[in-house]
Amino acid sequence: MIDVSIIVPVYNVQDYLPKCLDSLLAQTYKNIEIIVVNDGSPDDSQRVIDEYAARDSRIVAVSKPNGGLSDARNFGMQYAQGEYIGFVDGDDYVEPDMYEKMLTKAKQEDSDIVECNLFHNYSDKFDVEIGKEIYDKHEMIRVGRSVVWNKIYKKDWLFNTGVKFSVGMIHEDVEFFVKLVPFINQISYIKEAGIHYVFRSQSIMNRPTRKILDIFHVFEHLVQYYKDNGFYDEYKHDIEYLATRISLCNTVKRIADIEGREERKWVAEKNWDNLKQLFPDWKKNPHLKAGKSKKELYMKTMTHGLYLLYVRLFSIAPNVKYK
Taking the model in full, what pTM does it have? Predict the structure, then answer.
């Protein structure tokens, strides 16, 4: 039996894909399969996939018409034979012992999810992101790392939840992770950074457009999902806090980077209005009111005018660091 199935969605990453696949084939743990999903890529990615599949039988090459990252991940999951599933984007790469360490931890603790730390790779430097080990489900929703590619998931557990990636949106990892949280019995962590997230300007997530506003479709889906499954009353304040944090913190700098003053202003206004519409009492959120961090102080004091001022300031001074 295969222990880990690693799903690699591919679209226009022919220059990055060899490094990604080399890092997976070089894993110290050998009992893996690598499901490479060509999502209708118009570049030369299929040639790269074919060359690697011919060299190593652990490469499972599948293809489909273009449907986006989420659609490719969902498509790849149906081919997974492993006890655990992992996801790696075709322009990222991993450390040689990442899956050995994560699988060892999963076996030791009978984990539903195992999470590792990660590298941010820029064109001229890299840094390491060390996350907090969170075991409380409410806190996981509020401040947990929702990215999908620094984790492995027990396949039977994942499939039993019925959770898949929403298609056609960015921020899909947020929805996927938050939907999973109520079902988690055991989450485990390893201290080492295992995956390199490569920042590139062509990436959908790194191109600031009005697609940023997809996050509110994510929260609409989450609210409805939690209500349908009887979770909402227990977790509503956590979801509200997360929506506030993303809208007023993570999103501000990205909106400021949108080219075109009128487009930038429209997206900023829409972002503010969406938060008010979906969570009209966000300023009364008990976690926000009790919070004492600088970020929470910033959110507590936020007004419509101050919010627009921040967007304006960051658009004028784009190199200012924002934390």
Answer: 0.93
